[in-house]
Automatic annotation (TrEMBL):
<dbReference type="InterPro" id="IPR013149">
    <property type="entry name" value="ADH-like_C"/>
</dbReference>
<dbReference type="Pfam" id="PF00107">
    <property type="entry name" value="ADH_zinc_N"/>
</dbReference>
<feature type="signal peptide">
    <location>
        <begin position="1"/>
        <end position="20"/>
    </location>
</feature>
<dbReference type="InterPro" id="IPR036291">
    <property type="entry name" value="NAD(P)-bd_dom_sf"/>
</dbReference>
<feature type="domain" description="Alcohol dehydrogenase-like C-terminal">
    <location>
        <begin position="36"/>
        <end position="140"/>
    </location>
</feature>
<dbReference type="InterPro" id="IPR052733">
    <property type="entry name" value="Chloroplast_QOR"/>
</dbReference>
<keyword id="KW-0732">Signal</keyword>
<protein>
    <submittedName>
        <fullName>NADPH:quinone reductase-like Zn-dependent oxidoreductase</fullName>
    </submittedName>
</protein>
C-alpha cells in the first residue's frame, strides 16, 4: 500500500511541477479529484499557489475542501464543459472527452490526461494541424516547439 501511495504522490508532483509547471495564481481543474493521483494533485497545485477546482462525486466535497480545493464541482450536476479559463486541466478519469472539455482551457493551457482514448488523440492531432496550432499547450513536452504543424 505505501508503494502505491508514493507512486501516486510522485506522479502528481511530476504532472504539476514538471509538465504543467503550475505557478501561483493559475487556475487548475482536476477531474476525478477524490481518488489517488487527483487527491494528491489538489494538494500539490494548492501548495504551488494555484486556484484549484476539483471535480468529483457528491460525497467528496468536504474531503476535497479540506485538501485545499477552492471550488468543488459535482460531476453529476451541471456540465463540466461550461468551465472556462483554466491554465491546467488534469483528467484522472477515462471519461474525459477532449472535444467537449478543451474549451475549459486557455489557448496555451496544459491538458494532462491519465487515460487517453485513441479517437481523442487522433482528433487532437488532426485539429491542431488543421488550425496551425497545438490545442493541448505543453502536452507531450511542449508539443508546440517539438511538432509545429
Amino acid at each position: 500500500m505505501s508503494f502505491s501511495l508514493s507512486a501516486m504522490a510522485l506522479s502528481s508532483n511530476l504532472i504539476m511541477r514538471a509538465m504543467a509547471q503550475v505557478q501561483p495564481g493559475q487556475c487548475v481543474l482536476i477531474l476525478g479529484a477524490s481518488a489517488g493521483i487527483g487527491a494528491y494533485a489538489v494538494q500539490i497545485a494548492r501548495a504551488f499557489g494555484a486556484r484549484v477546482t476539483a471535480v468529483a462525486g457528491p460525497v467528496h466535497g468536504p474531503f476535497l475542501t479540506a485538501l485545499g480545493a477552492d471550488r468543488v464541482l459535482e460531476y453529476q450536476r451541471g456540465r463540466i464543459e461550461a468551465e472556462r479559463g483554466h491554465d491546467v486541466l488534469l483528467g484522472c478519469i477515462g471519461a474525459t472527452d477532449w472535444r467537449h472539455i478543451r474549451a475549459s482551457l486557455k489557448p496555451d493551457g496544459v491538458f494532462s490526461p491519465l487515460n487517453f482514448k485513441g479517437k481523442d488523440l487522433s482528433h487532437l492531432v488532426r485539429k491542431s494541424c488543421l488550425e496551425g496550432r497545438v490545442w493541448f499547450g505543453r502536452f507531450l513536452a511542449t508539443a508546440q516547439r517539438i511538432w509545429p504543424c
